[in-house]
């Protein structure tokens, strides 16, 4: 009853929850497989059985799809088993090898879906029906089962295919390319899969197939390049052994998509064993390796050795070059303008630097040791950066032997020179070495050259708090008639005298003053940095009275008056900082200086925290400081602030002296000062009441204040 009318399949499926437009059971059946609907297929089977209908389960649509192909394509093994059971029951032989418009067929789909169980199901069915499965045919993209299986790294599937091919005397197309020019061996090596690669080679040997080992195409690298790229020495050995056994000469010098050859790839991977393997292969076959070739990134083998600080590889290259009368490239620039000698200094490797210079000498190569890269770096600059005196001496010796003058004043894009860096690194020995070389070769060092941080030789010698180095800089400058820019500002607005105030080195301060006087330079002793700090303020914060005296003496000699009321960015000023440091001597010194210069000191200004002199005296619990401040204020008709609160916790002088420090004498001093100056205390009434209970004197003092 094949092709029997549908007998209301549409109504039947509607009752089961499926809406169908067509009432054609075979159209519905095909859609069921396309939609991957197992449940609906079961309903159709029941309907067909009940109505004695034989289903056309081999029908193909316009695209060439048919039920079993749909099952395989959609990876639905349950649906396929139902289909096979139905076919067997009705003695129908299923279509199993037919290809659709895209070249798909069931077994190909199983390999694409990486489904071994499905593949075995098809093989078993084919065996039962005496059908030979298609296992070599390509789809419209040129893909075929073996290729898909390799792309999935599915060794079991590959073995199944090979065993099936052997059983039915099928020769697998193991050299066949897809539309992307990919073929089995290429894929297995791309996947870095040794086992699959060996399987393919063994299969080729057993079936007298010659593999295409030298195959390459646009965008497709040769097999040896791939194995070298993957750093896989075992696969490389397989390729070489197979080539030897089949009298194939590998194109080991062929360049790949990145302009790399197998040798340069092995160098990039720093695989010594693979490098030796390729060299030995080349020697056996009288092939000269292109050991000087650049890749697309501007890298060549010897340059890469220096980049990676790999002397073992470098020596291998030198040995190979010597044996084959090749002069190695050792001076050409690569990425960002770096070259081998420069990399040797970057890597801080004196042995490598010696190796490069010795090779140059042996091969009559004169290196440009002053050559800069794109950022302006050069070998002796890097030796200074790395603090490597040995490398500096090695390069200096090479320069002398080859009548090359080292460019000591050459700077990188950030303004760094080898000299400025040696001082920044606080390296006296290298600084002296550079100075001596400069003197011997009549080079005048640029002492005032600013670097990226705005510093120069003097600034960095002071920054390092190094008196000897500072003297060295000054002495060299004098001997070479150079006037140092001793007021030069570096980053953050720091300059020598201010920087030294931070460091509290009185000897350097005296050196700077002496230098300024000797060269008729007016020192900046009041200039502020980016934070508003100035020398006097930092000396006070460091309790360095001796340095302050040095500054004052200098100011006196030059008819200058120090700015003793200036504030920094957080509103701190000298007298306030002195109180904060609890330094009575410093306060008295400032008062004496102010009196001497007819300056009225700030006594009420607040800093960013709301601290002011009398409040800080209370915080420091220092009655002598408070008396000194009060005495100065009275003599200068200044009414001191006694009520204001600081900003964080709202503390005020009397609260601090009485409640926090339990200092009755200091509290009494504040109350007496307030009464004397008709200042109404705004302290908490409970606190004032408690104070009045201390004794009769306090009681009277509080009564007086209450009347104000």
UniProtKB/TrEMBL annotation:
A Pfam family: Ank_2
Protein's UniProt keywords contain Repeat: yes
Keywords assigned: ANK repeat, Repeat
Keyword Electron transport assigned: no
Gene3D superfamilies with a match to the protein in the record: Ankyrin repeat-containing domain (1.25.40.20)
Protein name: Ankyrin
Classification via InterPro entries: Ankyrin_rpt, Ankyrin_rpt-contain_sf
